[in-house]
């Protein structure tokens, strides 16, 4: 896990990499590399190297990333990005019998949106989303809404659906749960979502002056999907 011995997470990782047929391509915003409490390294430690490939950058074109371009054109490739055009992953998994490739964007919501819309390659695969049925266990980092998940959690849920094996989700979430537990024991505080803070009058930061950001906050308070 590459963490200090005192907070080592290796005992919480699977003894052997999980056997999965689905291959993940994690498209990581460069800013994520400098974050101390990243979840992607834990995800990669749970999977075989050839089933979890991490590409760091903001812009991806066919000339610089020919392998990624080929993957995006593959009819079995999915991209996990919620929106009006996205199909629920459960519906896709029922119809799929062949091994799939899934692309997941790793970054803040604004960073992920920037990567998705400014790279035409990412609009080639079938767009899928997860049903908002679970709350994030990544309680040491503030999420926009109660149902927003970290990259590791998204991958855990998605893989369990694609592989039709619920235990995969439990195995991948195990090191995340341990990470949060360690951090809380060493002084970290539980971070409620921005949605929770706004609705309960607990948001203590200055309200944004930017009208677009202010409108997003109003939608969160009124429980309108954004």
TrEMBL record:
The keyword Cell inner membrane does not apply. One of its GO terms (biological process) is tRNA processing. It catalyses: a uridine in tRNA + S-adenosyl-L-methionine = a 3-[(3S)-3-amino-3-carboxypropyl]uridine in tRNA + S-methyl-5'-thioadenosine + H(+). Its EC number is 2.5.1.25. One of its GO terms (molecular function) is tRNA-uridine aminocarboxypropyltransferase activity. Keywords: S-adenosyl-L-methionine, Transferase, tRNA processing. Residues 1-188 form the DTW domain. It is an enzyme of class 2 (transferase). Belongs to the TDD superfamily. DTWD2 family. PANTHER family: TRNA-URIDINE AMINOCARBOXYPROPYLTRANSFERASE 2 (PTHR21392:SF0). This is tRNA-uridine aminocarboxypropyltransferase. It comes from Falcunculus frontatus (Eastern shriketit). The gene is Dtwd2.
């Amino acid at each position: 896990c590459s963490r200090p011995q005192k907070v080592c997470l290796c005992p919480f990782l699977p003894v052997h990499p999980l056997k999965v047929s689905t291959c993940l391509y994690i498209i990581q915003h460069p800013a994520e590399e400098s974050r101390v409490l990243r979840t992607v390294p834990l995800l990669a430690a749970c999977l075989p190297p050839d089933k979890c490939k991490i590409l760091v950058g903001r812009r991806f074109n066919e000339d610089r990333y020919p392998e990624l371009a080929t993957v995006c054109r593959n009819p079995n490739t999915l991209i996990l990005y919620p929106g009006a055009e996205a199909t629920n992953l459960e519906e896709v998994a029922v119809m799929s019998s062949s091994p799939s490739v899934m692309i997941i964007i790793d970054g803040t919501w604004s960073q992920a949106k920037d990567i998705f819309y400014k790279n035409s390659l990412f609009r080639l695969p079938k767009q899928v989303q997860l049903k908002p049925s679970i709350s994030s266990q990544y309680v040491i980092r503030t999420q926009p809404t109660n149902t927003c998940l970290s990259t590791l959690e998204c991958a855990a849920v998605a893989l369990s659906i694609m592989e039709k094996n619920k235990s995969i989700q439990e195995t991948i979430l195990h090191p995340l749960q341990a990470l949060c537990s360690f951090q809380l024991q060493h002084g970290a505080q539980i971070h409620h979502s921005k949605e929770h803070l706004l609705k309960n009058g607990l948001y203590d930061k200055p309200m944004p002056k930017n009208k677009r950001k202010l409108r997003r906050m109003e939608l969160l308070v009124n429980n309108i999907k954004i």
